[in-house]
Amino acid sequence: MVDCISAAIGGNAAYDELMYTCRGTGALYFTSMWASSWKEMREERKKSRNFNENYLKDPRYSRVVKLDTGLSYDPDFHKNVRDFARTFDMEIIEVKGSVELAEKSYRTAKKGVVQHTLK
Known about the structure:
- The protein has one domain.
- It has a three-stranded parallel β-sheet with strand order 1-2-3.
- The protein is of the alpha/beta class and 119 residues long.
- The protein has helices at 4-9, 12-21, 32-46, 77-87, 100-118, and strands at residues 26-30, 61-68, 91-96.
- The radius of gyration is 17 Å and the shape is globular.
- Helix 3 (32-46) crosses helix 4.
- The model has no long low-confidence stretch (mean pLDDT 80).
- It has five helices and three strands.
- InterPro entries: DUF1638 (IPR012437).
- This is DUF1638 domain-containing protein.
């Protein structure tokens, strides 16, 4: 099973290696989508009675991993990650991602749909 972060960096083995690099330190993983909406999500969560972001200020969460997949649909990606890191006093770890795994999965799914339709 591959989640969105695994897909963005090339698979589960790459994800395991990245997590090992951050061993002992909590890390949050930001793609362009997450970086573009963290402020809005924070404001929405503040409306909840269960809102508590203290864990983000916990020194065990001291890194934000910026996953640059090469998809540049968010021109403020770098700024958004930097703002998050500054807000919660976190170090930024830059990782070059890939869309290759996502594209391969899409092609496989598309092929399966086409084959099913032709039956």
